[in-house]
UniProtKB/TrEMBL annotation:
Assembly and oligomerization: NDH-1 is composed of 13 different subunits. Subunits NuoB, CD, E, F, and G constitute the peripheral sector of the complex.
Membrane disposition: Peripheral membrane protein
Record lineage: Bacteria, Pseudomonadati, Bacteroidota, Bacteroidia, Bacteroidales
Enzyme class: oxidoreductase
Superkingdom in the source lineage: Bacteria
Domain called NADH-quinone oxidoreductase subunit D: residue spans: 279-447, 449-524
Protein name, UniProt field: Respiratory-chain NADH dehydrogenase, 49 Kd subunit
Amino acid sequence: MKLENKEFGFDSFAAEMAKLKNEKHFDYLVTVVGEDFGAEEGLGCIYILENTDTHERCSVRQLAKKVGEESVVPSVCRLWADADLLEREVYDFYGIKFLGHPDMRRLYLRNDFKGYPLRKDYDMDPAKNMYTTEDDVELDTTTEWNLDKNGELVGTPHPLFTDDNFVVNIGPQHPSTHGVLRLQTVLDGETVVKIYPHLGYIHRGIEKLCEQFTYPQTLALTDRMNYLSAMMNRHALVGVIEEGMGIELSDRIKYVRTIMDELQRIDNHLLYTACCAQDLGALTAFLYGMRDREHVLNVMEETTGGRLIQNYYRIGGLQADIDPHFVSNVKELCRYLRPMVQEYLDVFGDNVITHQRFRNIGFMSEQDCISYGVTGPAGRASGWKNDVRKNHPYAMYDKVDFEQVTLSHGDSMDRYYCHIQEIYQSLNIIEQLVDNIPEGDFYIKQKPIIKVPEGQWYFSVEGASGEFGAYLDSRGDKTAYRLKFRPMGLSLVGAMDKMLCGEKIADLVTTGAALDFVIPDIDR
């Protein structure tokens, strides 16, 4: 969608945002984009909101106010819970302090990191801004910033722990946290009291790189964020660029992209079911999922040449046409997979131990899922109909018949079942399209130097774990002025404290497994 930003002014911003939430029912905060708008306007944020009843979306632009040397914006974390981590991310990379936010610490970078690297004037000289080899400074307190009656910025310290707290680090070792994620967990005996996520262990500055790369060069980075949603990630990026350029795609391109997206979704969900089993110690079920995932990758590899990193979508179409055997191989894969899915339930999903570990664990209500931005199967397990393919159709999704899988218990068990049922729906989508792929161009030729007209756009897709979006601010050049990705996993990790408060520490591992986050997607 092309953004037509509302602007309220600094003094009325908080009240107007509350009206959008409470009176106009924009109850889903999709993302917060920090941006350096240039020397004249300075720093600020773009807020993208959705009304979950009508699926209408709007965007709000708010410039930061200068208070001395600092830039400040009122926090909205008391209106939308997912703003907690989203605002901390903006603070980490731009240095904007959010007034009233109770925890203004860095989220991705070390506490001793100097400067804010996504600002346009950030000095990239490694001699001045190099990481040290010293241990990072561990903070026991955080700061809440506000303006006093004189308009001066004042900080109120808040302790993170009490003397009686027992703190355990879950991660950042890879097992059970599905990557280098550190969850600083406060315990009372075996009961979880609080979870503080620490991110950025595999942060590669992808959004900063995108400001220096040409548009075709940025495409290679999307596959490396969530390698289990590589197709969908790149679909979002080429989608926002194509929308900005006004490119009309052939039906053949749309058909193939839709089929590839669903093959990638099956790939992810098979690995998900396998890893859920492994995290609970069920190795046989893990091997079943990995066995069948190989068949999916074989079909994709014949056309794309890749297995983990696909590199298939281009601006204007596809890297190459489908393999001559693609249609027959996809149909054979569908016939093979349908009866196999039941095996995962027979061996693991309907096992009494699985039910005891998953049932009523990590509960989230529908309203909490909306507030925390828990999209994808994790949110649909609570009854929230958040599927981007239905609410904001793209490619061929408005032309195929499939069900949006929603369940009602909102626990880890239903999140697992939601993934299982979505495999069947993906097979349904593929089978409707694969016999009807039309003739036509697989690539709409573009100019050697691709430039996007001036403007701001946001394009989202239904990734394997939720909504994945790409925000583009173009100044008419061959590189993006600002390219921001909405990761699927950040809001999932941000909701773990809400899900697990009062649960046992053993439930943390199973809840994380059922959420289905991938760390490079969160870190970028």
